[in-house]
Amino acid sequence: MKLLLLFLLSALLPAQEDTAAAAARAMREGRFAEAERLYRALIKQIPQEPRLQLNLALALHSGKKYADANAAFAQFLKTNPPPGPVHLVAGLSLLKAGRVCDAAAVLETARRWQASEQVLTELADAYAACKRYPQAGAAYLAAAAKATANAGRLQRAAARAYWQARDYAAALPLFAALRRAFENDAEFLYESGDTLARAEGFAAGLPLLERSVELAPGLTPARGALGRALVEAGRHAEAIPHLVAASPADATLLMPLSRAYKATGRVEDAARAEQQYRQSLSAQN
Q1: Does pLDDT of 183 surpass 90?
Q2: Rounded CA gap, 189 and 148, in Å?
Q3: Which has the least CB within 10 A, 66, 112, 161, 219?
């Protein structure tokens, strides 16, 4: 996103005016390192001018020096500017630096300036990365309501966020509405099938989980969900290879694996799986 908020500064000395003009010109021409150097020089001369911190932050952000940009944005935001595009750019800079929860707080202010599709989508992404899944789902849906070309993608993100929040009642109708559009998307089928299994019973989710694993045999979480559902459906022999493949990444699957082994007469394997499960619990405590 190219958003440059370059302010004209009044009451500058002639030499400072020349430096400010040169910095603005460097920004317009994409010479961000030079703009950074010039703005740092001006800040040393006029440390009381917060708008120079903003211009420096924009130069750093444009030059992809996000950690330094975040420090400069923070200095400017201490002046409590009204909600505006600066909050969007500051939030994006925090996202780029991986400071997702801090980004969400700043983007919430940007939303008060403009609840556009872009702002809502960036805010939803920040919520999701910060594991604030219910808020992410609501923000994705709000963005989808304003979207022209990306509504389906945003609704799909909302469905995933509600699934991650374990709000299966909210996720279920979204997955159902999108099923035709994502009928060959293995991850969608896994999440949709898992939602159905948890909301309506394991038998309801089995066809989607089976299709997901058929499309992507290496999708380990889907194999785990399928294995668990097969155990609940009494199809123990079919469940075992899926649970064996998925249990190294999810120790909770060792108990249904133990059940499947026991139901198929593999008593020693059942005892071994249960022992591994108990050892994993001890290691966590």
Answers
A1: yes
A2: 25
A3: 112
Cα angle at 139 between 84 and 220, to 5 degrees? 130
Residue range 238-247, pLDDT digits in tens: 999 999 999 9
Residue 46 in 3-state DSSP?
Answer: coil
DSSP string spanning 48-93? Answer: T-HHHHHHHHHHHHHTT-HHHHHHHHHHHHTT-PPSSHHHHHHHHH
Both tokens of 60, joined, read 């750093």
Confidence of residue 221 (pLDDT cuts 50, 70, 90): very high
Structure token pair of residue 136: 């992410």
Token pair recorded at residue 257: 């694996």
List, for residues 83-120, the tens digit of each pLDDT value.
999 999 999 999 999 999 999 999 999 999 999 999 99
- The number of angstroms, rounded, from the C-alpha of 111 to the middle of its chain's C-alpha atoms is 17
Whether the Cβ atoms of residue 161 and residue 173 lie closer than 8 Å to each other: no
Contact 104, 123 (CB under 8 A): yes
Q: Is the CB of residue 23 less than 8 Å from the CB of residue 35?
A: yes
Structural Rg of the chain based on CA atoms: 26
| Residue 88: C-alpha distances to residues 61, 95, 103, 118, 126 (Å) | 12, 11, 9, 9, 12
Give the total residue count for the chain.
285
Taking only the tens place, the pLDDT of each residue in 272-283 is: 999 999 999 888
Q: What is the dihedral of CA 160, 164, 169, 174, to 10 degrees?
A: 0
